[in-house]
Specification:
Layout: H1 3-32, H2 38-63
């Protein structure tokens, strides 16, 4: 597989995992009416996944695997 495709796939999978975690938190909040730790746990996972994806993007940019492009310039 090409490196660029692999990186894009990992980014998309990371974003999907973040959305699934956010949906899980919403479901737990509505179902348990805020009386359980499931919402907190799901939101903690979302924060961790978001930070992990951000760090991976920064590492990718630093190593040259991810190349940001100028928008409109």
């Amino acid at each position: 597989m090409h490196t660029s495709f692999t990186v894009k796939l990992l980014i998309v999978l990371g974003l999907l995992a973040i959305l699934v975690s956010l949906g899980s938190a919403l479901f737990a909040l509505v179902r348990d009416k805020g009386r359980s730790q499931r919402t907190v746990r799901a939101l903690t996972w979302r924060i961790g996944l978001s930070l992990g994806l951000f760090v991976l993007l920064l590492l990718g940019i630093a190593t040259g695997v991810v190349v940001p492009h100028d928008i409109g310039g």
